[in-house]
Design goal:
alpha+beta, 4 domains, 9-stranded mixed sheet
Length: 658
């Protein structure tokens, strides 16, 4: 016969606490299983601590068993932990430990998505979200302890009595509500264990079979893990994804506790870089799919796990963002990421270069947003370059660039050279400036679109001018950042203007009409002004230096200041930047086509009824040359493209007439 030891009311400060628990404690009822298993693991770990201190010498056998009884609508969670005495049940179960129940009720009514693990003493009470009755059978590890049975039907009344339990530990049995019976399905339990408890340090069994991985790689020493261990863990977390570029193992217990593994993924066009993908754990218990408030914003695209018991989980996001400990954890994570990047740059620059297309986004974004991180990585920012070592004309007089290692005991050559596998050359800004000091001191030529600016790049290369490719989506902002960081350096996009070394000033000023004393450039300028009739278009004529006919007959130049102002205005108005109406058409007077065009125009005779056939063709060719220059800059809208096609047909028709 069962002896009832005590009956009474659970000690709380408000009568409506259980309705609040059922409706508002968690946004997802499934969290109850995470909470109960967390408690079970805690009980097992407490027993381990007692055993290590010599207070218990029995067999530990850590294990959690989950049992399903569909007929009785019961779900039970059993542990082999420390157990409880009757007094401990009264203390830890009957007294809901928080200072003001009313304050708690008001707080959680308005915030259903906040997480609680071990806070307010309410982890156990989450079971009432799904159960109509909750029972506890427990036996303390203490010698001579009496087993205890506790039951509650979801009201504030409980019953405490003797139990027939003979094994140390605790069993929580839930009689599920009719609308919560999906938790009696083995597949549902397995899915929840995988989501929330897969890395708990205790075996969790269902029907005698272990259903959790148990081992948490981020809790292991980095020296004990192989490359394959890290990759296997990544593939488990993010199946069907390409392998990551590299990873960072976090492991510190002072002045805060943080463990984790962060991976640099290969970035895809469909990846939302503003959305966090790092999983947050607390003592190996899964908490959230992202921890956007815990890590620096520029590291949001990283993947992996962060586990910390020092991150408050029962507070608002705004509180997290302003919490001092959280900010220090974020700084620690940023520093570890920076250290890992510097390590890779120092030890395996070839691998660093291969991953730069993806890594560069993190590094540049971090430099823009975090001064500490910027100082940490400023020497490892690299840029793809047209320079190809000794075989490139730009490097003829360039010194070999060397830097000292982090230890300060050796110098190594880090000048960019093409890799054997065809990987493009990369350089730092410092290397670029030192290499080109004698040719164009404190000036950087850069390209933002390798396709549309290919002509301009080739023109620079033909005269031995090195060009940096800054063509990622972040580089439009990053160029301005570099200008602020290096005010003594002028950054010029290859299509903004032409360096004097690209122009043959003698040919441009050559007199070709003694009667009028006009130069070739003046004649050609008048010809294009008359043919195009665009008041806002500035026409320049220059003889470009080139040894081949690859240089175009004309180029559109976009003045740096004007172009940037238009791009900024488009950004502020959230519009696509339009091609600027005010731009420069630079006509290459040294090109054979332009020279032939001059002869054609000189042979034309303007008649009173209109233009002569040769004058009309000359006008069409001028327009066609301008169209080709615009096309290289993607300067056409729909109407412009239509007009270009029509003029092209006219030119070809005229050229094929007898």
């Amino acid at each position: 016969m069962t002896t009832i030891l005590e009956q009474g009311n659970i000690s709380i400060h408000t009568e409506n606490i259980f309705p609040i628990i059922k409706k508002w404690l968690y946004s997802d009822h499934e969290i109850f299983l995470r909470e109960l298993i967390s408690n079970a693991v805690d009980a097992i770990q407490k027993l381990n601590m007692v055993a290590r201190s010599g207070g218990y010498s029995g067999n530990l056998e850590p294990e959690i068993q989950i049992a399903i009884d569909k007929e009785q609508k019961k779900l039970s969670i059993s542990d082999t932990g420390i157990g409880m005495t009757a007094d401990e049940v009264k203390k830890y179960i009957n007294q809901v430990a928080f200072s003001s129940a009313e304050e708690f009720v008001e707080k959680y009514k308005s915030s259903a998505d906040q997480q609680i693990i071990g806070h307010f003493g309410l982890g156990f009470y989450s079971s009432f979200m799904v159960a109509s009755q909750v029972e506890i059978d427990t036996l303390s590890y203490q010698e001579g302890a009496q087993a205890v049975h506790w039951s509650c039907d979801g009201s504030t009344q409980f019953e405490l009595s003797d139990s027939t339990r003979t094994e140390r530990g605790t069993t929580i049995t839930l009689t599920l509500q009719d609308d919560e019976l999906d938790y009696l399905e083995a597949s549902r339990i397995q899915q929840l264990i995988k989501t929330y408890c897969d890395f708990m340090p205790v075996p969790i069994k269902l029907d005698g079979e272990q259903i959790n991985k148990q081992k948490a790689p981020w809790k292991e020493s980095p020296s004990s893990l192989t490359k394959e261990d890290y990759l296997e863990f990544y593939r488990y977390l993010y199946p069907f994804q390409e392998d990551p570029l590299l990873w960072v193992h976090l492991n510190t217990d002072y002045p805060f506790v943080v463990n984790g593994i962060l991976y640099f993924p290969k970035l895809k066009p469909d990846v939302d870089v503003t959305k966090g993908q790092i999983k947050l754990f607390c003592n190996q218990v899964f908490v959230s799919d992202n921890c956007e408030e815990v890590i620096p914003r520029f590291l949001l695209p990283l993947r992996g796990v962060i586990d910390s018991s020092d991150i408050p989980l029962n507070v608002s996001r705004s509180f997290l963002q302003n919490d001092r400990t959280v900010r220090r954890i974020a700084d620690y994570i940023a520093k570890k990421v920076g250290d890992r990047l510097k390590e890779l740059y120092r030890d395996d620059r070839q691998e660093y270069v291969r991953g730069w297309q993806d890594l560069g986004t993190f590094v540049k974004f971090g430099s823009l947003n975090d001064d500490k991180f910027k100082k940490q990585v400023e020497d490892i920012l690299i840029y793809r370059t047209t320079w190809q070592g000794a075989g490139n004309q730009a490097s003829t007089d360039a010194p070999e660039v060397q830097v000292q290692s982090a230890e300060g005991d050796a110098w190594q050559d880090v000048s960019p050279k093409p890799e054997a596998d065809g990987t493009p050359s990369y350089t730092t800004l410092k290397e670029y400036l030192e290499r080109n000091q004698s040719r164009h001191e404190n000036r950087v030529f850069y390209c933002t679109d390798e396709v549309t600016q290919a002509t301009y790049v080739e023109l620079h290369k033909s005269q031995g001018l090195e060009v940096l490719f800054m063509d990622s989506f972040i580089d439009s902002h990053f160029v301005s950042f570099l200008e602020r960081e290096h005010p003594e350096v002028k950054f010029s996009r290859v299509d903004a203007d032409l360096d004097e070394t690209l122009i043959d000033s003698d040919k441009s000023s050559e007199i070709v009409d003694p009667a009028t004393n006009k130069t070739r450039g003046e004649q050609i300028k008048e010809l294009f002004q008359q043919a195009l009739n665009k008041p806002k278009l500035t026409i320049r004529t220059e003889a470009l230096k080139t040894d081949n006919e690859a240089a175009p007959p004309a180029m559109v130049l976009l003045p740096e200041a004007l172009r940037r102002m238009q791009e900024l205005n488009a950004l502020l108005q959230q519009q696509t930047a339009q091609f600027p109406e005010e731009h420069v058409l630079l006509v290459n007077t040294a090109h054979p086509l332009i020279q032939n065009l001059t002869k054609l125009s000189q042979g034309s005779v303007l008649q009173s009824s209109g233009q002569s056939p040769s004058a009309e063709l000359s006008t069409l060719i001028c327009q066609h040359v301008y169209d080709l220059a615009l096309m290289a800059q993607k300067g056409f809208d729909a109407d412009g493209m239509k007009a270009f096609v029509e003029r092209s047909n006219q030119v070809l028709t005229r050229l094929t007439q007898n």
